[in-house]
Amino acid sequence: MGLCKLGCVPCLLGILFLSSLELLCMADVHYYDLIVRESNFTRLCTTKSMLVVNDSYPGPEIRVHRGDTVFVNVHNHGSYGFTIHWHGVKQPRNPWFDGPEFVTQCPIQPGTNFTYQVILSDEIGTLWWHAHSDWTRGSVHGAFVILPAPHESYPFHPPDADQTIILESWYNDDYLELIRNSTLNGQAVGIPNAYAINGHLGDTYECNDTIFRMEVNYQDTYLLRIINAAMNEEKFFSIANHTLIVVAQDASYVTRFATDYIMISPGQTMDVLVQANQNIGQYYMVMRNFHDSAASSNNNLTTAIFQYKNSVGGPMNNASLVSLPEPDDSKATSSFLSRIRNLRVRQNPPLRVPRAIHRRVYIAISTNSIPCTNDSVCITENRFVAALNNVSFVSPVIDILQAYYKRSINGVFTKDFPLEPPEYYNFTGDLTALNRNVNMGTKIVMLNYGEAVEIVFQATQFGAGGSHPFHLHGFSFYRVGSGSGNFNNVTDPKSYNLVDPPLINTVHVPASGWVALRFFANNPGVWFSHCHFERHSSWGMDTVFIVKNGGTKATSIRPPPASGMPVCSGT
């Protein structure tokens, strides 16, 4: 998690120990061990036991080169099962190691271990890894840094050093208990007690919590690798008196632009250059929530310090004076996102935006409610659910990939996810009189190999409304369009950006608006798609895309690992 001098890349051969993480580098193959167990942490004058990796929060950083293969042996020394997902890694033809629980694998049970094979392809820059079971990712997560290959360079002047910045949520209560109680009583998990930057709560909360300090040299340039690992909050981030230069998003280079702030959604990563060119001193790094729904929010400022060497005293200005948009400033969000454009350089994948579309999927996003069942202890007569096209995803007890690949396991999923809303209405209008009930099921979308796919996500005003960060496993996609109101399939595509759309893996769906994505279905496998607000994903705001095999071995799913997969309970 410390500042890394570029050029001092961890070993080509031999063994490196980093934050208790053993890394064996042999050419382009790396080996890591992740030990997952409970450790005690004290924040806000409260000590809690928390499931973490290698006794650290956030977890250790994986640092490799583009195109490498990484084997990660995950040891579960905790008391319940979980999985690990390599967020933004496409895993070509390799869904067995993608990680979402009961989608591509069953949990790694306590007292067992499982080795993931992480195959990198064209990703470059910053990604991350996190648990993909219940809310466990709140404490089990870390950075996945992909440096240029030995023969490559940056498409900008190399920075003097880089620094990972992870934005996090902090709850005094246990993450697993939070979601279990929420599921039982049918209500939402409460807002976090605080937020953290690299595990530190900063100096705006009580109890004199620690603050993260990034030490810098005057006139040096730094590459910040910013990750939003928060559970349910999009974030504004800024550094007092310093200009940020955005150079990459979701492990793909973008056309550089200068800004006073960034807006980053949960699941997203952003690479930002900053030059230490101000008077020697200490300057606040500040984040706060961007929040545009009717749900409750904690809008506290959370701080870290950008500290010049040989500076003395405290930060040069109060955190509340740092220039950040207001928490509900949707214009600041849309203005920032509109500036992100694909950069046509050899270090990026060739620009291949689908033009002729074979498969269109129009998805209306909603939060809903259904009557409580007899096995619930609900606070009210209804419980919260969430849905896509009126279908609330039900997690199976046998993973979907196993059922699909073996063909002999029936009843796990159905292939009838609706490709458009079952009913058209004014999605962004007053919906109080409409029926909010949904259908429950494990419904998936089947795609033929090589199809050009367009997905339009339509936000609705059901429930608290607001924006949503949507993530698609197994792919990066082009964000070709976005707008307010209801999507019009005749007029809105005329405004699409098919020239230089950003290539990303997690997208901001604006409140009372829509976003359009395009990609080629050229990665056979079973791939999860879900809202990266954990409360929404837990309520069923998810679906699965299955890309069928092509006509050759090279266009088909790889065989499952010979050593086997984690076994589902009761099977």
UniProtKB/TrEMBL annotation:
Keyword Metal-binding in the entry? The reply is yes
Q: Which InterPro entries match?
A: Cu-oxidase-like_N (IPR011707), Cu-oxidase_2nd (IPR001117), Cu-oxidase_C (IPR011706), Cu-oxidase_fam (IPR045087), Cu_oxidase_Cu_BS (IPR002355), Cupredoxin (IPR008972), CuRO_1_LCC (IPR034288), CuRO_2_LCC (IPR034285)
Task: Tell me, in one coarse class, where this protein mainly resides.
Answer: secreted
Provide the leader sequence positions.
Answer: 1-27
Q: What is its EC number?
A: 1.10.3.2
Q: Which PROSITE patterns match?
A: MULTICOPPER_OXIDASE2
Q: What reaction gets catalysed by this protein?
A: 4 hydroquinone + O2 = 4 benzosemiquinone + 2 H2O
Instruction: Report domain Plastocyanin-like positions.
Output: 36-148, 163-311, 417-549
Task: Please provide the record's keywords in A-Z order.
Answer: Apoplast, Copper, Glycoprotein, Lignin degradation, Metal-binding, Oxidoreductase, Repeat, Secreted, Signal
Alphabetical list of CDD domains matching this protein: CuRO_1_LCC_plant (cd13849), CuRO_2_LCC_plant (cd13875), CuRO_3_LCC_plant (cd13897)
Function of the protein: Lignin degradation and detoxification of lignin-derived products.
Which PANTHER family does the record cross-reference, listed alphabetically?
LACCASE (PTHR11709:SF410), MULTI-COPPER OXIDASE (PTHR11709)
Its family? Belongs to the multicopper oxidase family.
Q: Under which name does UniProt file this protein?
A: Laccase
Give the species this sequence originates from: Gossypium arboreum
> Upper taxonomic classification of the species?
Eukaryota, Viridiplantae, Streptophyta, Embryophyta, Tracheophyta
